[in-house]
Design brief:
Blueprint (H helix, E strand, L loop, with lengths): L1 H23 L2 E16 L9 E17 L2 E9 L15 E13 L2 E9 L4 H7 L8 H4 L6 E10 L6 E8 L13 E11 L2 E10 L4 E3 L4 E3 L3 E12 L3 E16 L8 E15 L4 E11 L9 E13 L2 E15 L5 E14 L1
Antiparallel strand pairs: 1-2, 1-18, 2-3, 3-4, 4-5, 5-6, 6-7, 7-8, 8-9, 9-12, 10-11, 12-13, 13-14, 14-15, 15-16, 16-17, 17-18
Length: 352
């Protein structure tokens, strides 16, 4: 009996080993973490002034699967240290960030993606910016376009050499959450690789939304939304990189200037200018400036954002980045002084 059990155990171990060796070529596990020590030197919310401490702003754990020769899949969890992923008891929790399957080569040069996956809006510009560990790009930061949506994508090359690429997506417009209405969002993007190191994107999306009731004339009116943007970036190897991203957004019948006026269209504008330069193999200087006006017909709702930092990279997958962020608001506080936020941080970022 002992010999039978021993033989069976050896067989199980050999089977498990063979399966693990086979699985090794089909599954890739990876992750990243962004963490800070922060100090709120000033804040537009008086209760948050002088707040300080350690925080996780992002924890990814990703599994990429090669499920067949022409099918890949990704499942990624995310902890962002906020209400998106915290448990009801306020503890660190997780949410689903990505869950999709990719049909590679549906036709020549093009792939089909189905599930919760990135949107086309800033995938290229965020990669070029390269410092998501410090801050989101402007369309993400100001909530213009979600980084993820549940739908179907068709993406690939318009030119065989990859100098012109396209990305189309139809999705729920519910981010990482489940669908809650019948309306959809339609995304499109063109990516141009102009010369060595120089690239550009042109992006547009249209979101159909439920009608909005105008309390002035009691009429039901369209509330659909259009977003358009472009990005231009240049990178010279590991020496320096610069980028410019700008957008416009229009929402039909979205606001009224007063209770005695009819709804009118809301128009938003924003731009972001950023760059980094290497001082040595281990040090980079980083700078960025954003300006955002949510409603061009209002005078006190805009803001400007400035960031600067020094990236020290003691290891290939690890950075220590002392940095600060300053936000200046057009709106004034109760004393008539313009509101502002100023936070100093030491950011730690690592991948595995």
């Amino acid at each position: 009996m002992k010999k039978v059990l021993l033989s069976f155990s050896i067989l199980l171990l050999l089977t498990a080993f063979a399966y693990a060796q086979d699985l090794k070529d089909k599954v890739k596990l990876s992750g990243l973490m962004y963490s800070d020590f922060f100090y709120n030197i000033d804040n537009s919310d008086a209760a948050k002034k002088d707040l300080n401490g350690f925080q996780f702003r992002r924890i990814y754990f990703t599994a990429d699967f090669a499920i067949a020769d022409n099918f890949d899949a990704r499942f990624r969890t995310d902890t962002d240290g906020g209400t998106n992923s915290n448990t009801p008891g306020g503890k660190f929790g997780v949410m689903v960030k990505d869950a999709y399957v990719k049909w590679k080569g549906l036709f020549s040069g093009s792939d089909l993606v189905l599930g919760i996956s990135p949107t086309p809006a800033f995938d290229v510009s965020e990669a070029a910016w390269g410092y998501r560990s410090l801050e989101k790009t402007i369309l993400d930061l100001d909530g213009i376009v979600s980084s993820r949506d549940f739908g179907v994508d068709l993406k690939g090359k318009l030119m065989g050499d990859g100098t012109v690429n396209y990305w189309l997506k139809v999705a729920n417009n519910s981010g990482n959450g489940p669908e809650s209405d019948k309306y959809k969002r339609y995304y499109s993007m063109l990516h141009f690789k102009l010369t060595d190191g120089l690239q550009a994107t042109v992006y547009a999306d249209y979101a159909s939304k439920a009608n909005k009731l105008d309390s002035f004339d009691k009429q039901s009116k369209s509330n659909n939304q259009f977003v358009g943007s472009f990005f231009l970036g240049y990178k010279q190897k590991e020496n320096f990189s610069i980028g410019l991203e700008a957008f416009t957004r229009s929402i039909q019948n979205n606001f009224a200037k007063s209770s005695t006026s009819a709804l009118q269209n809301q128009s938003s504008l924003g731009f972001s200018l950023w760059g980094w330069a290497s001082l040595s193999e281990d040090f980079r200087l980083i700078g960025r400036f954003d300006n955002y006006d949510p409603n061009q017909d209002l005078d006190n709702d805009g803001k400007s954002f400035f960031m600067a930092g020094l990236d020290y990279r003691p290891g290939r997958n690890f950075s220590v980045i002392p940095n600060f962020q300053y936000v200046s608001y057009q709106a004034n506080d109760a004393q008539g002084i313009p509101k502002s936020d100023l936070v100093a941080r030491v950011t730690f970022t690592f991948t595995f």
